[in-house]
User: Which sequence fits this backbone?
């Protein structure tokens, strides 16, 4: 069945450094890839998304890149700040449905 | 505009008890979803609905039932709770843009979650 693998499971960076989280998906027909941020005890919230007809998208310090050939997509956070500390989830749409498959999450710690 | 809301926020059940979790959205979204979140396992889809009066099974449906009698509400029921159902439950809603024959996914918006402990 469809699968999304997310790495790393935990990531610690110094404040001001960059962080990269990578996801690999199995369904070549997936066409929508959202990224969610979840702070402790809170709901997942969308931070950025990308569609299959675009290779890269940026929003201030956050960017997402998509390599359809390799079925990889990545979240890039530059100039990290302590408030970026959270769990980040990637997801990929499932062909012909309104469903996603989620990755297992990455716990990002930004050290001051 | 409250978005997606869930009740209750927290509940403790004994094994074998039943309960219903309520999800409500005021965004006129067509699609609604119930997920469970367990440590290290991300978000797993329990059941979902693509419209009023319709429901379908997700990845982990066993032990749960759902109903969507009104477009704005999606109920998740546990008929006989088990300790394995201890989890955080999230509801989400979404919509799609008209794309002709092509299905265009849009963002899912999540509720605040319900923490369930089954003893």
Assistant:
């Amino acid at each position: 069945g469809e699968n999304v693998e997310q790495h790393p499971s935990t990531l610690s960076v110094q404040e001001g450094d960059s962080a990269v989280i990578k996801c690999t998906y199995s369904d070549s027909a997936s066409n929508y890839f959202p990224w969610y941020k979840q702070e402790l005890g809170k709901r997942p919230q969308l931070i950025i998304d990308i569609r299959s007809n675009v290779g890269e998208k940026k929003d201030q310090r956050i960017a997402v890149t998509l390599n359809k050939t390799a079925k990889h997509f990545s979240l890039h956070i530059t100039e990290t700040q302590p408030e970026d500390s959270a769990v980040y989830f990637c997801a990929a749409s499932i062909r012909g449905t309104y469903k996603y498959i989620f990755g297992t999450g990455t716990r990002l710690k930004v050290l001051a | 505009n409250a978005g997606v809301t869930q009740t209750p926020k927290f509940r403790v059940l004994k094994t074998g008890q039943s309960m219903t979790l309520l999800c409500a959205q005021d965004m006129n979204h067509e699609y609604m979803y119930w997920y469970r979140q367990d440590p290290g396992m991300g978000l797993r889809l329990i059941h979902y609905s693509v419209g009023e009066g319709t429901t379908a099974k997700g990845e982990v449906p066993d032990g749960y039932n759902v109903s969507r009698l009104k477009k704005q509400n999606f109920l998740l029921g546990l008929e006989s709770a088990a300790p394995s159902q201890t989890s955080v439950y999230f509801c989400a809603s979404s919509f799609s843009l008209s794309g002709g024959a092509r299905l265009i996914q849009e963002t899912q918006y999540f509720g605040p979650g319900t923490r369930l402990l089954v003893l």
